[in-house]
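Supplementary Methods, section 5.1.

A reviewer requested that the exact input to the structure prediction be made available. We therefore reproduce it here, unchanged from the version used in the analyses.
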Amino acid sequence: MTKTELHITELGHRGDGIALTAAGPVYVPGALPGETVLADVQDGRAAEYRLTKESPDRITPQCRHFQLCGGCTVQHLDEGPYLAWKRDLVAKALTGRGIDHPVQPVIAETTGSRRRAVFSAARAGRAILFGYHEAASNRLVDIAECPVLEPAIVRALIDLKRVSAILLPKKGEMRVTVLATTAGLDVAIDKADRGYAKKIADVSMIAASADWARLSVNGEVLLEVRPPALDIGGTPVVPPPGGFVQATRRAEAALAELVFAGLGASKTVADLFSGSGTFALRIAKKAKVDAVEGDAAALKALDAAIRRTQGLKPVTLTRRDLFRSPLIKEDLDRFDAVVFDPPRAGAHAQAVQLAASNVNIVVAVSCNPATLARDLRILIDGGYALQTVTPVDQFLFSPHIEVVAVLTKETGDGARRTG
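The structure derived from this sequence is encoded token-by-token as follows.
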């Protein structure tokens, strides 16, 4: 096959270098803007290539698994250009929806900070593979390190693999979610062998020896030495096994600070897609909160935390599927402000209802700039003015970025409403 010389001009939204050619864009995994490569091109991608001109922004990756593991796509890019690229991901998503608004500098994260990891485990003959998938592949990378994770999780990799060897089914993959809490590791295993009950003693012995706080298998808590609590703004919260929490402590605090600042002096707040209370527990220190969430286990964890905490304003808990049954205008108009933090799919149905409401302030939190931009467009078209957009990089070295956007309802003359 004839080699093609490609000049990389930009970094795509997935972290691939992009070369513009007469036949269209060619995506080059691992290449950086300003670099030149000689490549075998197949279907718009460089199958194999040789780097002939290197970017001054290229640095030595920290992890031995880089480029094989699909978790980190831009570990080889220097910090300044890396943060600029992340900021640009948000800006491009906004402009793609016709939203012209400045994006604040990215609040950066550091290595060794990721407190939650989701691993996969599988059999490969007699071997056990434990780690992450290769990029765009079902193949697993058997990892020995991960620089983005908190050290406590990295130290547990050997024991996690030992437990996986015992619980893995003969076919298929097993999912292992690990959370570093104030009490130790919380390990939740899903899709384990159906006969795991016969192996409880063996896995419990490993978990106890490793001093894990809790071990759950297929939704059943097998061992709880200590409640695996997280410190949510000074309130201890025990999330459900494998439940969603913000990926890093520092990013969570940054997101909460941005949300808190956006709410201003609001006295009644709806926290939609509240989870186990990342924002609700903090907001309740100064305002009445209605926390709405579809997951019963998350609401149960939030309820337990509220009952253990003194000095909070009233908090109402409602279980509701906001995708199918969003709060309507009449529900929303009771509140001074609304916070929403949906999954990656965004909050389209809820945004439509918010756009028709008279809520003074809306704070949108999202881990997907594309769906966030879609929802912001709906709100802006409904009479909201975008005030601030701030990215928070809690997904280090990956194409993912968290964002907080603050909007206010305008009066007919374009002024901000105050009450």
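The chain has a mean pLDDT of 95. These observations are discussed further in the main text.
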